[in-house]
Amino acid sequence: AKVISRGEGVDIHEADSDYMSRCARAAEAAAKYGDWQILDVLENGRMLPPDVIHRAIVERIASVCESGEDE
To answer: Whole-angstrom Cα distance, residue 12 to residue 47?
Structure first.
């Protein structure tokens, strides 16, 4: 997982890259354990715009619902 900044300033947690890396690893482990789906929201190391991320989430949900994947 990559730690990125949106250029809006960082809080005390975001300023600690080691902490952020540990959080990312914990989130990845939780996702794997919970069989969650993960969306890649970075393109060339930059966060995708919110509307693009939203569309990707909606498309993923629709795909799962149509396939009955979670049943």
So the answer is: 20
